[in-house]
Design brief:
single chain; alpha+beta
Length: 347
């Protein structure tokens, strides 16, 4: 029948497109298909249509070759597959874009570099000290800023009170906006300094349990429901402090006292596919993502900052990345620009 012929033509077209998609790669088509099908199953990814499937397979094959080429050389870090393996560079950049507002000039106090770096410990890790909640996942919403904010608040609150509380990103996404007396824009981006100010004005923040995160799937903010939960007593910052820019000494000194919210550039392929080691790869200073610095140290002679991300535990090293530390990164602006815009709340 005509319908059957049409179906067969469609199938043949998809097969031909798959052949074209993986042509010119290092391995045979079957190699990539097997890995790709396993990846789709593991990450529960579904294709919208045949063309979408072909495009994802091509991107996956490109990334597979890229990962293997990188890992076969000598490097301080390794790459691997994760939930973003089906995205090419343009799609990855689009995914990152919009989560972070442009840093503003604030009248906040500044945490300056100490006069003697010997007063600062050689390493610190707030995850082992119990001041960092498990890795969270922002999903499809451009709300990285809210996760960076809650992470810094969680650390400050635990250090002061000895109680690790998971605070609500959704309250910030829904309520910290123009309508709610704030400056942030939900899934369309925000800034950690602004969020600290809003929490102070709001009298604190509710817990994750009382105001759970829902924007990861919907990609949008919800209706503000902060009146349906009670802000945690003592969670309102008295103020926030900006860390002196372009100074490893200042950042280390700040991290010695508590976790710090930082802005970075995260739209590079090596960041997308990072899986372990000290990230010393090419990474710019066009700040587009908010994360949380939770410590620093040295591994096999390579100095690093330990950073908690908000893309779940399937990305990076169980949700974390070690960013190279030292003035060789971006002329002292920090690896991925992490020394350009950093702050923490004062409880």
């Amino acid at each position: 029948s005509t319908q059957l012929i049409s179906i067969m033509q469609g199938v043949l077209f998809c097969v031909l497109m798959i052949v074209v998609a993986v042509a010119g790669h290092v391995h045979e088509r079957a190699y990539y298909e097997e890995k790709f099908f396993n990846w789709m199953k593991n990450h529960q990814v579904k294709a919208v249509n045949g063309m979408h499937f072909v495009q994802m397979l091509k991107n996956f094959a490109d990334n597979e070759d890229y990962i293997n080429a990188h890992n076969s050389g000598k490097s301080t870090y390794r790459l691997g597959h994760n939930q973003f393996s089906h995205l090419d560079s343009a799609e990855w950049s689009a995914f990152i874009k919009g989560g972070l507002s442009k840093p503003e000039q604030h009248s906040a106090s500044v945490h300056s570099a100490p006069s003697n770096l010997a007063d600062v410990p050689s390493s610190i890790d707030w995850t082992t000290k119990g001041a960092v909640t498990p890795v969270k996942n922002q999903g499809q919403c451009g709300s990285c800023w809210s996760f960076s904010t809650t992470g810094a608040l969680e650390g400050a609150y635990e250090i002061k009170n000895g109680d690790l509380v998971s605070f609500s990103e959704q309250e910030l996404v829904d309520c910290d906006n123009r309508k709610g007396g704030g400056k942030d824009m939900g899934c369309n981006g925000g800034l950690m300094d602004n969020a600290f100010d809003w929490i102070a004005k709001n009298g604190g923040l509710c817990t994750e349990a009382d105001y759970p995160y829902t924007s990861g799937d919907t990609k949008t903010a919800g209706t503000c429901s902060k009146d349906s939960c009670t802000s945690v007593s003592g969670s309102a910052p008295k103020s926030h402090t900006d860390v002196q820019t372009a100074s490893d000494s200042a950042m280390m000194s700040a991290l010695a006292q508590q976790p710090v919210s930082i802005a970075i550039e995260a739209d590079q392929k090596d960041f997308q596919l990072y899986t372990s080691g000290v990230f010393t790869g090419s990474c710019g200073t066009n700040l587009d993502h908010g994360v949380l610095a939770v410590g620093y140290g040295t591994s096999s002679g390579d100095d690093f900052y330990k950073v908690k991300n908000s893309w779940g535990e399937t990305w990076g090293d169980a949700g974390f990345i070690l960013l190279g530390r030292g003035d060789q990164y971006n002329k002292g602006q920090g690896q991925c620009g992490m020394l350009m815009s950093a702050s923490y709340p004062n409880l």
